[in-house]
Write a structure and sequence with these properties.
It contains ten helices and six strands. By secondary structure, the protein is α/β, with parallel strands linked by helices. It folds into two domains: 43 residues, no CATH class; 187 residues, 3-Layer(aba) Sandwich (Rossmann fold), CATH 3.40.50. β5, α10 and β6 form a beta-alpha-beta unit. The model has no long low-confidence stretch (mean pLDDT 90).
Length: 232
Amino acid sequence: MMNNQFSQYLSDFLALFFPEICAGCGHVLVRQEKQLCTSCLFHLPITNFHLDLNNQVARQLWGKFPFENATAMLLLKKETRVERILYQIKYANRPQLAYFLGRQYGETLVKSLVFTNVDVIIPIPLHKKKLKKRGYNQSFYLAKGIGMALSKPVLEHGLIRVGESVSQTKKSRLERYDNVQNVFLCADGHSLKGKRVLLVDDVLTTGATLTAAAEQLIAAGCTISVLTLARA
C-alpha cells in the first residue's frame, strides 16, 4: 500500500515538471488519461469498417490482391486530430501511442468477433536505414497492441524490407506502385504456409505498399486480412 502511494506521489510530482501531453490536441493529460485526452478519444472519427465487409478499405483493395477482411480504425483528413496523432506516432517518438490505439481497436474487434480467426499478425516493416533513424517501427507497435487484445502472436520479422523506397507523399498513384515493387521478402514462407495473416500498417492511401507486401505472403501460401490505423 505504501509503495503504491509513494509511486503515485512521485508520478504526480514529476507531472508538475514533465506533464504528459495529449497527442491529439496538445493539452496536458490528467491522471486517468493516457496518450489521448477524454475529449480527443470521444471525437475520434471511428469508422466501424469492421462491421461491413464491403467497406471503403475493402472496396479500395478489390482487384489488387485476394483477401478475407479489410478495415481501418480511423478516417484521416488534413489538419485534423488524426493527422496530428499520426505525426506524433511517426515523428515525435511516441510508439506507445500506436500500441495504445492498436489495443483500443483490438478490444473492439474482439467484441465483434471479426479478425479473431487470424493465426498471426505481421506488421509492414521499415527498411533498416529508416528503422535506425526513427528508432522504432510504428506499425510493429500498432500490431503489438492489436495482438495483445486479440491474444494473437505478432511476427515482427515475418516480412523483410529488402529495398529502400523513397517517400510516397508526393508521388502519383502509378509512381507509388512502382516505388514499392520488389521491396519486400517473406522471411520464412515455409512456416507461414496455410496461415491466416493479419497484415498491419499505419495508413492506407493508394494501397501500393499493402499490395506489394501481401503478394509476398500470398505467394508463400498465406490467406490475408488487412488492418490499418487510418485510411486517407
